[in-house]
Specification:
Keywords: NADP, Oxidoreductase. It is an enzyme of class 1 (oxidoreductase). Belongs to the short-chain dehydrogenases/reductases (SDR) family. The structure is a single chain. This protein is α/β, with parallel strands linked by helices. The chain is 41% helix and 17% strand. The chain has helices at residues 13-25, 36-44, 62-72, 98-126, 146-165, 199-210, and strands at 4-8, 28-33, 52-56, 80-83, 129-133, 171-177, 180-181, 197-198, 220-223. α5 (146-165) links the parallel β5 and β6 (171-177). It is globular.
Length: 230
């Protein structure tokens, strides 16, 4: 039986690179994303057939999360979940509209919590693994940056969840990357100068956590490109 993995925010960047790596490793992979066209375009280029499922929807919507988990578990027992969906706003806290702030907090904080709530019962059954993709911005404060605040909250969710489920045999890993060359920067004026990792670099860290032997749990991986100071 092929392992079954759910990835949120899987149509591009780290999520897409992780999906590609897991498909090559022999997983069946289900991807969520808010843009059906991006999901369809990604799937069309993979040649994965029935091993790849796309599930358009917003992870800050509890009903969408519930539908996604029900869909993927039709394949069988859910063994891995990668919580990757999230976004940042250009400018600083002082520039954001309340509406944009609300959307980012829902996606970056509520969304992961909803995914955890929905998936943990399945991961307890499979003694599976949960990976949450945070950021070095969740470990080092960035002044006037609400995205950083949301990532601190995500890091807290990771440890909170680990404490709650480790006795049930569920592995929980926080992967906190530094600067990564992904579409994350598209609405922020492009990738800043200086060293950057690739999405595949971070995907390799996620696979390292997922591929640990039973009984071994990597709790946190904080990774930066060589040369990144903060």
């Amino acid at each position: 039986m092929k392992p079954i993995t759910l990835i949120t925010g899987g149509s591009s960047g780290i999520g897409a690179a992780t999906a590609q790596s897991l498909l090559k490793q022999g997983h069946r992979v289900a991807l969520t994303g808010r843009d059906p066209d991006k999901l369809a375009a990604f799937a069309a280029n993979q040649g994965a057939g029935s091993d790849l499922m796309t599930l358009p929807g917003d992870t800050s919507d509890a009903s969408a999360v519930s539908r996604a988990v029900k869909s993927v578990t039709q394949w069988g027992r859910l063994e891995n979940v990668v919580v990757n969906a999230g976004f940042s706003l250009p400018g600083t806290l002082m520039d954001h509209t309340p509406e944009a702030m609300h959307a980012m907090v829902l996606t970056n904080v509520l969304g992961p919590a909803l995914v955890v709530r929905e998936c943990i019962p399945h991961l307890k059954d499979s003694r599976g693994r949960l990976v949450l993709v945070g950021s070095v911005a969740g470990a080092k404060h960035t002044p006037n940056n609400l995205y950083s605040v949301t990532k601190w909250a995500l890091h807290a969710l990771a440890e909170n969840t680990r404490l709650a489920v480790t006795a049930d045999g569920v592995g929980v890993t926080l992967v906190a990357p530094g600067k990564v060359d992904t579409p994350f920067w598209d609405n922020r004026g492009g990738l800043p100068d200086g060293p950057a990792m690739s999405a595949q670099d971070v995907a390799s860290c996620i696979l390292f956590a997922l591929n640990q032997p039973p009984g071994m749990d990597i709790n946190q991986l904080q990774v930066r490109p060589v040369g990144q100071i903060n």
